[in-house]
Amino acid sequence: MKNIYTIIKKPMFTEKGAALKESLNKILVEVSKDANKIDIKKAIEEIFKVKVDKIATITERGKWKRYGKSVGKRPDTKKAIITLKKGEKLEFIEGA
């Protein structure tokens, strides 16, 4: 089993994530590329002490970008949309 603290990388604070959090009780986080749904669920439940109902994962390919005359690629990322059970709430510190 992987270390649960390396599976969850960081919460993602976007407009879409804020809308999901307010209306549907869903949390948007960036996760490790090799993590599966079972690992993500165990990590969230153990770290934050909440009950998870459902998880959807999204793998994004990095874009090719030009930097002057050289070409580079941004890294691939994986996101997870975590649906919490009714009555559960998870608060992240937003802003600084």
User: How many E-type strands?
Assistant: 6
Count of DSSP-assigned helices? 3
Overall number of structural domains: 1
Q: Beta-sheet strand percentage?
A: 35-45%
Helix content: 25-40%
Low-confidence runs = none
Structural class: alpha+beta
Topology pattern, helix = H, strand = E: HEHEHEEEE
Task: Please give the alpha-carbon distance between the first and last residues.
Answer: 34 Å
Mean pLDDT: 90
Tell me the CATH architecture. 2-Layer Sandwich
List the strand order in the largest sheet. 1-2-6-3
Can you identify the CATH superfamily? RRM (RNA recognition motif) domain
In a nutshell, what does this entry contain?
With 96 residues, the protein is an alpha+beta fold.
Give a quick set of tags describing it.
96 residues, Alpha-Beta Plaits, two-stranded antiparallel sheet, 27% helix, globular
Explain this structure.
With 96 residues, this protein is an alpha+beta fold. The chain has a single domain, classed as Alpha-Beta Plaits (2-Layer Sandwich). The protein is 27% helix and 36% strand. The protein is built from 3 helices and 6 strands; from the N terminus they run H-E-H-E-H-E-E-E-E. Strands 1-2-6-3 form a 4-stranded antiparallel sheet. Strand 4 (64-67) and strand 5 form a beta hairpin. The longest helix is centred in the middle third of the chain and has 12 residues, at 37-48. The radius of gyration is 15 Å and the shape is globular. The mean pLDDT is 90.
